[in-house]
Structure formats: structure tokens, C-alpha cells
Amino acid sequence: MTLTVVKPGLQTTLQGAPYLGHRHLGMPAAGAADCLSLALANHLVGNAPDAIAVEITLDDVKLTVRHPIALALTGAAEFLRVGDEDRALHALVYAKPGDEIHIGPATQGCRSYLAVSGQIKALSLLGGGSTYLVAGLGGFKGRALQADDVIECKQAAISETTGKNTPDGLRPIISDRFIMRVTIGPELSSLSLDSQKMIFEKNCQVGARTNRMGLNLQGLALDQEDGSQMHSAPVFPGTIQCPPDGEPFLLGPDAQTTGGYPRIAQVIRADRHLIGQLHPGSEIQLVPVSNERATEIYRQKLSLLTPWLGAMSLW
After folding, report:
1. DSSP-based three-state secondary structure for 23
2. pLDDT tens-digit readout, 147-205
3. pLDDT tens profile 89-139
4. CATH superfamily placement of domain 177-309
5. CATH 2.40.100.10: which residues of the chain?
6. CA–CA gap between residue 298 and residue 303 (Å, rounded)
7. Strand residues in 58-187 grouped as ranges (E)
8. Which of 45, 176, 199, 207 is 20 to 30 A removed from 82 (C-alpha atoms)?
């Protein structure tokens, strides 16, 4: 089975599971920026939650199919059109040979995920196949998709059973305003006392410097009392750092493995998938929680998701 790219959009890549256990080699996690939307799309077509899918960023995308295929779309897209028919997101959909799949742009949020029946073929390394754009690794030739690219998928049995939809209570709310729970970072005390309070009392907005590596957060203007010259230390997706200019930076899935700026907060694991839906102008409220509460929230979220999705994890 194949999908041919007609309109590639702004940045469309093949993404699935992150690269785990290789940070000592300097290899970032990478993988799907919104792992929950990825898992929900994959489940509808019968794939593993972290199987490779097509990650679409902001813009609309068009592809054509050469063989009968089952597909599902989740995330921020305004619409899904197969051939001449509008189809629902979060639903199992069928396409026939020659159909054009038109995925609408994101009017709120940032990313959408197109999963298809059968495994999408991707360049494999370090046990995974997600695209890491900075180094040109994985995915489709290590790069974003371009017009006329042909995505190959392993043939899968297709049963045209209808009515499979994500339950309403499990569909993430796609918005431009987010509450993100965080734990306190090890260098929060490097900020002035007023700034330590400000980051949890004043909302911030995502600035224009935004990609899969990270996002600058505007509207806080934090003051550092010390720590700006600290030695490099481990950082992870969801780490919030404070450079000397006082404008925090939220690290994304493609972020580096170490950094030399104070780590003032860490987005909790249960909320980290929300980073994938942030775009310039998104508003964020940071809410502090304890490490114990962060673990409890994660367990509660999995207990809600696993009856539908089966054994899975969020990253």
C-alpha cells in the first residue's frame, strides 16, 4: 500500500515512539510531539499506540491512495475529506484507490496525526523510526515530506466494519489556552523571589521562536539572582529553562540532552503531550504540583486511557 504526497504542508513528518535509552549518546527523544493524539489515531486502525503515523503541523495536507486503506485522523485539523466526502475526526474511515485525502489546517492547536492500517515504513535506527529533523535521521529519508514523495505501508487486512470512534470523554480538547502542571525545577531558586512567584501567577504566551526543539515563552520577564553561569546539566522534553534575558524556553521533543541555563520547572509527564499542540500565540498557565502528585496524576490518566487503548505510556 502507498500514500503519495500531493501537498506536503508546512512540516509533515513520520513520527511514532521516541528514542529511549540513548541520551548518553546525545540522541534526543524525538518522536510524536503529541503522543496521546498519536495513540488515539493508531488505536482506531488497529496499530500499536506508538506506531509510526503522519504528523502534520498547522497547514493543510493532501495525499492520494493507490490501494484500499483504513485510516483515522486525530488532533487539531479543521476537517478530514476523503474523495468528495467530509469525514469525522476520531473515526475509522475507509479510502478507495484514487481517493484524495485532504487534511484541513489547524484553526486551534498545532498538530494532527494520520494513522493508516498496516505499518508505515520508516528508516530504522536505535530501535525506532521517528524523524529527527536536526540530524536527518529516521522517518522518510530523515526529512519532512515533499510533494510526490511515496509513503509505503505494509499490506494489512481491511474489514469495513463501521462505527469505531474515540469515546467523547477521551478526545483531547484542542484549544489555544492551556493549563500545564509542572514540578519545581532544581534551579528555581536562581530567580528572584518575585520571579519565582510570577511564573505561577501570570500567564505567558508562546512566542515566534517555536519548533519541535522548543518554544520561547513571552510575558514573564524573569530576573535571575544567580545561576546564569551554571555548568551544563541534563534536560528533557518539558524542561523550562531561563536564559540570561529572562524569557523562559520550554523544551520540546527534539530538544538537546543537556543545557547550561537554570531549569526552573518541568512539565509533568501526564501533561507533556500538550506541548505538541502549542503554536505562536498559545496562552499557558503553569500550575505547580508536587512530585508525588505528578505521579498520581499520571496513574489516574493511564487508568482512564488503558481500558480503550490497552497497555500504553505517555512520554
Report:
1. helix
2. 999 999 987 766 555 569 999 999 999 999 999 999 999 999 999 999 999 999 999 99
3. 999 999 999 999 999 999 999 999 999 998 899 999 999 999 999 999 999
4. Cyclophilin-like (2.40.100.10)
5. 177-309
6. 9
7. 61-65, 69-75, 80-82, 85-87, 93-95, 100-103, 111-116, 150-152, 177-184
8. 176
